[in-house]
Write a structure and sequence with these properties.
48 residues, 1 helix
Length: 48
């Protein structure tokens, strides 16, 4: 009798020190907003 093993879905590893494509896109978007604000006002937006 042949036994079949149920195929498991590959588990996605959670790696906190790597950036995903979406993280990079969000950072670029935020950087562009900060740059635009600097060009318009002449001051760097600083968040605390």
């Amino acid at each position: 009798m042949a036994t079949t093993k149920k195929a498991e879905k590959p588990r996605k590893k959670v790696i906190s020190h790597e950036l995903t494509y979406l993280d990079v896109r969000q950072a670029a978007r935020d950087g562009q907003k900060a740059f635009d604000a600097f060009v318009l006002t002449g001051k760097l937006p600083v968040s605390k």
